[in-house]
Structures are given as C-alpha cells and as structure tokens.
C-alpha cells in the first residue's frame, strides 16, 4: 500500500523479506484472506498511521520457515494459522489474557506488516496448528471472522441451545460464519439480506428463516416468526439505519452484539426501549488467545469449515478488495500466494 485511499493505492511489487527477531517466527504464507479491517486500514479510517509503503492483511496461513532458538510452541516446517493481534505483555489487559484490549495493541496488517505477502514475521505465540484437514485457503479464511464471532456469540452473548438468534446481513464473513456456529450449537437462526440469492445460500447452510430486508418489514416479520416474543440475540455488524430495528426485534432481556458497522457507526438508539426491555448491548473486537484455542478445538469437533466465496491470486489483491467493498461475496474472499 503506497498511501491511504482507494484500492488504486495497492501495488504488486517486491518488498524486503522480514528479518527474524527474538521470540519471533517468519512464516512462508500460502494464503491470506480479505477482511473489512484491511479496507479500513487502507482508507486510513482507523486513525492509525503506519510507515508507508505498508503491507495489509490480518489473516494468513502457511509454513513456519524461520524460528528463533527460544521458541518452543512450534517448529520449522509446521503448518500454521495466525492469531492476528498481539499485545504489550505487561498491561492489565495483557496480564489477564485480554491482549486484544491492550492500549499498545498491534494487529497483523495494521501496526504490524501483514499477510498480503510471501513472508510475514510475528510472535511465535500467535502461531497455532491448522485445524484438521483444512487447506491453506480455509486456514487463512477462518481466524479473524471466527474469533470475532466466537467472542460475540459465545463469550459475550452467551448464546444457548434452543435460543433464537437474528443475524443481520448474512453475506458478510462474520455473519455467515455465525450462522454455521449458531446452528451447530443448536440455536434457531433467522437471517436477513437484501439478496434473494444470499438468503437461499443461507438456508442451504441451515438458516431456519430468511427475511428480505428491502421488501419485508423486519420487526413485523421477526414478531410473526417468534409468536410476538422477539429474538434472544441479535448480531448486527451493519449498524446505520438497521440498528434501531435490531433493538426492536429483541425479546425482553435480549442481547444485541456488534463488532462494527459497515453501514455507518452513528446509529440512533431508543434509550427507553433499552431500559424497559432490559436489553444488553455488547461490543466485541477480536478475542483472546484462549478463545482462539477453544475455537480451533470447536471447529475440529464440530467439523465446520469456513465458507470460501472466491480465491484471487495475490497479484489481484486490489480487485479482491473492490469485490468485498461492493459486498458481492458470500463468505470469505481468499488470496492465493505464489511460492
Ligand atoms: Zn498490553
């Protein structure tokens, strides 16, 4: 990335290979995945200034190529997926296993050089074994979206078997992965989309009901489907004008969870509704290394694979980002990295 702005700021060119440091590893990447955070970083929307040129990419998978002598958790030649955030190791959040809340947080592709590259350097403890039978593309596609939804749905919303969850905008990576996890733990799942095709794909993945949010009245339809009760949990990473409706879909004591707002971060709340219905609103960002470890065990046990919409060569990273910006995907868009 040669500057902040549109996808035209991305160039496919040679860059110096990362140099090994104490406690670090260099991973030869086989695949990376596109996330909205890459696009926000490219636009400069995160407010984080990085040295330019910069390599984007929070998600990746590959083979450990070089390793510091002090590293014990992995060895050269291991197939690894990458836990994207790393903290300072000293603050109150790092010392309580919440590195992702560190004031000095560094995330791959953000303050750290990222994964749209043949090699990436990162702390050894950020490398985890790839879930059984996953391809490199699948191993690159799952970390950021699944760790985010895991913290949102399982840790924060405490979604339980038998509860009903409403997932707003099912095409996105977090939303489609949430559908997979929620169904696997035995929840009833209602999804929304403005695309008939995406609603049909969601139903193939187990969604119990689909609501077309342009042609149907979201709150009325949710009330009808839940016997006027409302849903236990809403997952809304769209925000904007949808947010108020998301609150309206919740049952008494319901929980709304969010990890971002692709349609705008200045939503209007009805504070009276939050009070009178005893609603809980949880923000989530990423998740802890312990949650990541549990997640990998869950993916192995539940035999869930990430949904891959399409694979672009690394040289077409700009086209891949445009495709995601236009919200044309269902599931993840992956970059294949040449040897
Ligand atoms: Zn810290």
What gyration radius follows from the Cα positions, in whole Å?
20 Å
Beta-strand content estimate: 15-25%
Parts with pLDDT < 50 across at least 5 consecutive residues: none
Cofactors, ions and other ligands in the entry: zinc ion
Beta strands, count: 15
Secondary structure tally, helices = 10
| Silhouette | globular
Please estimate the helix content.
Answer: 25-40%
Largest sheet: 7 strands, mixed
H/E topology pattern: EHEEEEEEHHEHEHEHEHEHEHEHE
Ends distance? 21 Å
Question: Structural class of the secondary structure composition?
Answer: alpha/beta
Mean pLDDT: 93
Describe the overall structure.
The protein is α/β, with parallel strands linked by helices and 339 residues long. The protein is 27% helix and 23% strand. Helix 7 (242-248) links the parallel strand 11 and strand 12. Helix 3 packs across helix 4 (173-184). The structure holds zinc ion.
Short note summarizing the structure:
With 339 residues, the chain is an alpha/beta fold.
Topology:
Layout: E1 24-33, H1 36-43, E2 59-67, E3 79-82, E4 85-86, E5 106-107, E6 119-123, E7 127-129, H2 136-141, H3 143-156, E8 164-167, H4 173-184, E9 188-193, H5 196-204, E10 209-212, H6 218-225, E11 231-235, H7 242-248, E12 250-258, H8 271-276, E13 280-283, H9 289-302, E14 308-313, H10 317-325, E15 332-336
Parallel strand pairs: 8-9, 8-11, 9-10, 11-12, 12-13, 14-15
Antiparallel strand pairs: 1-2, 1-6, 1-15, 2-3, 3-7, 4-5
The structure holds zinc ion.
């Amino acid at each position: 990335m040669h500057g902040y702005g549109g996808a035209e700021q991305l160039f496919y060119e040679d860059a110096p290979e990362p140099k090994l440091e104490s406690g670090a590893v260099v991973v030869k990447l086989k695949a990376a995945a596109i996330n909205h955070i890459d696009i926000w970083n490219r636009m400069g929307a995160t407010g984080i200034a990085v040295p330019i040129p910069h390599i984007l990419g929070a998600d990746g998978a590959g083979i450990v190529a070089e390793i510091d002598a002090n590293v014990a958790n992995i060895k050269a030649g291991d197939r690894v997926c990458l836990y994207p955030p790393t903290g300072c190791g000293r603050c109150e959040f790092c010392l309580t296993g919440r590195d992702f809340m560190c004031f000095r947080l560094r995330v791959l592709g953000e303050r750290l050089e990222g994964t749209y590259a043949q090699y990436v350097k990162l702390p050894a403890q950020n490398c985890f074994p790839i879930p059984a039978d996953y391809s490199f593309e699948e191993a690159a596609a799952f970390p950021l979206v699944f760790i985010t939804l895991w913290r949102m749905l399982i840790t924060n919303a405490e979604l339980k078997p038998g509860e009903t969850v409403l997932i707003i905008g099912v095409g996105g990576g977090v939303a489609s992965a949430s559908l997979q996890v929620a169904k696997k733990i035995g929840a009833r799942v209602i999804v929304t989309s403005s695309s008939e095709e995406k609603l049909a794909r969601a139903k193939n993945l187990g969604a119990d009901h689909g609501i077309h949010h342009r042609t149907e009245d979201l709150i009325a339809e949710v009330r009808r489907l839940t016997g006027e009760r409302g849903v236990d949990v809403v997952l809304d990473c769209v925000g904007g004008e949808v947010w108020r409706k998301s609150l309206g879909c919740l049952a008494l004591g319901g929980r709304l969870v969010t990890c971002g707002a692709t349609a705008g971060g200045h939503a209007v709340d009805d504070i009276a509704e939050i009070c009178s219905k005893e609603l809980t609103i949880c923000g989530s960002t990423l998740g802890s290394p312990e949650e990541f470890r549990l997640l990998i065990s869950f993916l192995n046990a539940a035999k869930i694979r990430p949904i891959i919409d399409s694979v672009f060569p690394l040289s077409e990273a700009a086209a891949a980002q445009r495709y995601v910006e236009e919200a044309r995907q269902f599931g993840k868009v992956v970059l294949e990295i040449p040897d």
